[in-house]
């Protein structure tokens, strides 16, 4: 693994300047994505092979997919619940939780639904789930407001046990054997995640907006995210527009994003701090080093 003594001089210098700025920062935001949990064994959305049975997650994570084929979508989410329950938080999840504990003005915006930041004892009032959670359930009946958070039962119904046997051929599950609402007894339950085309929970958006507008964010840590999903990705530009600096942690750094690539004009504009630091490699390795 990368140790300071094995780093190149430029990486060590970049790390030193990051550490100095981190210590002088008063308000810090983190936007994290699937790459944060990659080292915990959970596949990313755009990684090789997709998330499940080679289906494109983007096609399954939609209300249309669920209404067309609740059996397929429930098996997708049931398999991910099982995988997340078996996964363990990694050193980056713990490092972010530790930073939150010693910095009240630090907030993590997670796009992940795997619950690993919570299991790393991240202070809950400094952790916003932008896209919900695999372990929340909601009733789909129009007249019913049933929602349950922190449901870790697996499988949710006996029939869903097959979802984790990805080596077995796919089998259709009758709607009657999918999870149903314990409150109204009729509604089909759905995963409490935000699907494409659905709005983010307004309370979460409100809290993120309040944090950003209640004082200049000095630094945003952009960890393990392709930055392709909005409005989540938009928070990075919001911090840049305030003049905050950006640190990217990714195995695959998009060089066009870094400061020294900017044209003369851009580097004097409001995007003066596109990306000040880039840490290329596994987030589970670099985040603990950067935040120590
Ligand atoms: C909304 C929960 C409006 C579900 C998720 C055009 C057409 C249609 C829609 C749109 C459009 N343009 C914009 C939109 C809106 C759409 C969107 O942004 N689409 C994109 C794809 C173009 N957004 C929405 O629909 C949002 N809602 O806009 O609503 C609205 C308003 C009012 C009223 C009605 C509607 C809702 C978006 C939320 C979707 N739900 N997740 C589930 O998980 O199943 S998003 C899902 O995908 C994840 O949560 C995550 O956010 C995203 C994947 O992104 P990443 O986390 O970045 O993961 P990814 O695999 O992409 O990248 C991993 C990164 O990690 C890579 O960079 C990789 O290099 C790196 N990495 C890998 N390993 C490591 C690593 N880094 C470090 N270390 C490693 N080891
Ligand atoms: Zn119900």
Descriptive account of the structure:
It contains 10 helices and 9 strands. Strands 3-2-1-7-8-9 form a 6-stranded parallel β-sheet, with helices on both faces. Strand 4 and strand 5 form a beta hairpin. Helix 5 runs parallel beside helix 10. The radius of gyration is 20 Å and the shape is globular. The chain starts with 8 loop residues before the first helix and ends with a helix. About 5% of the residues have low confidence. The site of zinc ion (ZN) has 8 residues, from loops.
Quaternary state of the chains: single chain
Number of helices in the DSSP assignment: 10
List the bound ligands. Answer: ligand BV8, zinc ion
Overall pLDDT metric? 91
Could you tell me how far the N terminus lies from the C terminus, measured between alpha carbons in angstroms? Answer: 16 Å
Helical amount: 25-40%
Structural class: alpha/beta
Percent strand: 5-15%
Radius of gyration (Å): 20 Å
Largest sheet: 6 strands, parallel
Shape descriptor reads globular
Strand order of the largest sheet: 3-2-1-7-8-9
* DSSP strand tally: 9
Secondary-structure element series: HEHHHHEHEEEEHEHEHEH
Low-confidence runs of at least 5 consecutive residues? 260-273
Protein name: DHS-like NAD/FAD-binding domain-containing protein
Organism: Lipomyces orientalis
């Amino acid at each position: 693994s990368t140790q300071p003594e094995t780093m190149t001089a430029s990486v060590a210098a970049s790390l030193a300047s990051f550490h100095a700025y981190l210590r002088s920062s008063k308000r810090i935001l983190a936007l994290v994505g699937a790459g944060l949990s990659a080292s915990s064994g959970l596949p990313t959305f755009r990684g090789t092979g997709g998330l499940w049975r080679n289906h494109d997650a983007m096609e399954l994570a939609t209300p249309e997919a669920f209404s067309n084929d609740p059996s397929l979508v429930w098996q997708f989410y049931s398999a991910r619940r099982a995988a997340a329950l078996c996964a363990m938080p990694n050193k980056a999840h713990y490092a972010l939780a530790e930073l939150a504990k010693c910095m009240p003005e630090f907030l993590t915006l997670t796009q992940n639904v795997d619950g690993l930041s919570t299991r790393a004892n991240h202070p809950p009032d400094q952790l916003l789930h932008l896209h919900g959670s695999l372990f929340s359930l909601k009733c789909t009946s129009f007249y019913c407001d049933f929602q349950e958070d922190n449901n870790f039962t697996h499988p949710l119904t006996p029939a869903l046990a097959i979802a984790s046997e990805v080596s077995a051929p796919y089998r259709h599950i009758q709607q009657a054997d999918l999870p149903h609402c314990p409150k109204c007894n009729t509604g089909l339950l759905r995963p409490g995640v935000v699907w494409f085309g659905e709005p983010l929970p307004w309370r979460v958006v409100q809290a993120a907006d309040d944090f950003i507008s209640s004082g200049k964010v000095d630094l945003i840590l952009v960890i393990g995210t392709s930055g392709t999903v909005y409005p989540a990705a938009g928070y990075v530009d919001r911090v840049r527009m305030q003049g905050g600096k950006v640190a990217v942690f990714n195995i695959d750094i998009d060089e066009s994003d870094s400061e020294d690539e900017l044209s003369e004009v851009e580097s004097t504009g409001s995007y003066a701090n596109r990306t000040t630091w880039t840490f290329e490699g596994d987030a589970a390795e670099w985040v603990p080093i950067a935040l120590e």
